[in-house]
């Protein structure tokens, strides 16, 4: 089945019949949410379709077997699965005979502002896992089914944003335990800052250079180092300037060498060390850089 001339998500919904609910709305530009509920016929329900490029977040209660890129995934009961499709993927799915299903999904196109926010760390194929209590409550919520027209779209939009909030929170909590790749990226970020602290890269540039989005970079950096990136840069600057003052370098020159104006440096130095930089005694034992 070719979907090259058809919107794949609408096609998937039309294939999933007989459905009691089969709704799709646009939550944001290039962000779609859909909800489908129904029962498979006695012979079961089988179909093939193309999964479009983008981020895919799904949750549901079903008895479905899906083959994507040659791998078979079994969805049984309340399940959540998220993945990132960098190219269109063919899928073949079969719902068990006579079984009911409820399926919720979010699709985020690469053009969306949410793509980088939500996409970091997602695998190229689904990894089904049990849905948590919040997602189970959302899956079983039938509020939208009791409305029609505009009221129904409002109720669906509420479900969509609730799912989006869950996905965002799930990713935020994950920043407390960064995986190996992200830990290596944080080490690289710290190395870059250690070397370029007088003129540090912007947050966006640093994120690009280490291969993380800004949300993971800032969250993981704080989790690993115990302070924000901005505070780490300030401590580096003050620590290096303090070491310069200990060798007899004038205050104004030390400030400029670490990328600060003399007035800003004097205020920050006093907050950090408890006295103005002019009172730093030359050849005194240097203090910790960071």
From TrEMBL:
Gene3D superfamilies (alphabetical)? Homeodomain-like
Q: Which UniProt keywords apply?
A: DNA-binding, Transcription, Transcription regulation
**Molecular function as annotated in GO:** DNA-binding transcription factor activity; sequence-specific DNA binding
> Which stretches make up the HTH araC/xylS-type domain?
187-283
Instruction: Return the InterPro entries for the record.
Output: Homeodomain-like_sf, HTH_AraC, HTH_AraC-typ_CS, PchR_regulatory_protein
Which Pfam families does this UniProt record tie to the protein? HTH_18
- Entry-linked SMART domains: HTH_ARAC (SM00342)
Q: Which domain of life is it from?
A: Bacteria
Return the PROSITE patterns for the record.
HTH_ARAC_FAMILY_1, HTH_ARAC_FAMILY_2
Q: What is this protein called?
A: AraC-like DNA-binding protein
What's the source species for this entry?
Polymorphobacter multimanifer
């Amino acid at each position: 089945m070719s979907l090259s001339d058809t919107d794949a998500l609408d096609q998937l919904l039309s294939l999933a019949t007989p459905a009691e609910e089969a709704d799709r709305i646009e939550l944001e530009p290039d962000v779609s949410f859909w909800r489908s509920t129904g029962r498979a016929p006695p012979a079961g329900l089988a179909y093939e379709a193309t999964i479009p490029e983008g981020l895919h977040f799904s949750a549901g209660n079903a008895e479905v077997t899906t083959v994507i890129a040659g791998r078979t995934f079994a969805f049984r009961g309340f399940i959540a699965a998220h993945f990132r499709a960098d190219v269109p993927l063919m899928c073949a799915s079969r719902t068990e005979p006579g079984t009911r299903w409820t399926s919720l999904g979010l699709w985020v196109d690469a053009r969306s502002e949410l793509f980088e926010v939500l996409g970091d760390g997602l695998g190229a194929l689904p990894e089904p896992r049990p849905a948590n209590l919040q997602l189970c409550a959302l899956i079983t919520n039938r509020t939208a089914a009791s409305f029609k027209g505009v009221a129904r779209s409002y109720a669906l939009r509420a479900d969509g944003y609730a799912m989006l909030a869950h996905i965002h929170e799930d990713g935020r909590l994950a920043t407390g335990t960064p995986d190996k790749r992200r830990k290596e990226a944080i080490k690289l970020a710290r190395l870059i800052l250690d070397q370029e602290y007088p003129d540090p890269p912007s947050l966006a540039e640093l994120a690009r250079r280490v291969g993380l989005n800004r949300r993971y970079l800032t969250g993981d950096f704080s989790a690993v180092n115990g302070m924000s990136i901005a505070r780490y840069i300030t401590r580096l600057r003050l620590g290096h300037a303090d070491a310069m003052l200990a060798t007899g370098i004038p205050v104004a020159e030390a400030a400029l060498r670490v990328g600060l104006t003399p007035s800003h440096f004097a205020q920050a130095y006093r907050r950090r060390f408890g006295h103005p930089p002019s009172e730093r005694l030359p050849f005194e034992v240097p203090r910790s850089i960071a």
